[in-house]
Specification:
Elements (H helix, E strand, L loop, with lengths): L7 E8 L2 E8 L2 H18 L5 H14 L3 H15 L9
Antiparallel strand pairs: 1-2
Helix pairs in contact: 1-2, 1-3
Family: Belongs to the universal ribosomal protein uS7 family.
GO molecular function: rRNA binding; structural constituent of ribosome
Keywords: Ribonucleoprotein, Ribosomal protein, RNA-binding, rRNA-binding
């Protein structure tokens, strides 16, 4: 589960008529909720086998550092890194 937890995410902030994607740290509780939500949603999106097996496979992929939920975490971190210039709008 720890492999899927995001450390940072982007939140929209409206400043002077423009909306910026501002990177913010993710609190531990929210990181856990996001990780569970991502794992379950990607397990549901796979078809052709029982939900228990899909969930087990997604958890095993997360443990091995691969799979859709890991990609989602990496994409979230990339988005935060790309918008790092707007970090000073955090408040």
């Amino acid at each position: 589960m720890d492999n899927v937890k995001p450390l940072v995410e982007v939140r929209p902030r409206r400043v002077g008529g423009a909306t910026y994607q501002v990177p913010v740290e993710v609190p531990a509780e929210r990181a856990e909720v996001l990780a569970i939500r991502w794992i379950v949603s990607f397990a549901r999106s796979k078809k052709g086998m029982p939900i228990a097996e899909r969930l087990a496979r997604e958890l095993m992929d997360a443990y091995k550092g691969e799979g859709s939920s890991i990609k989602k975490r990496e994409d979230t971190h990339k988005m935060a890194e790309a918008n790092r210039a707007f970090a000073h709008y955090r408040w």
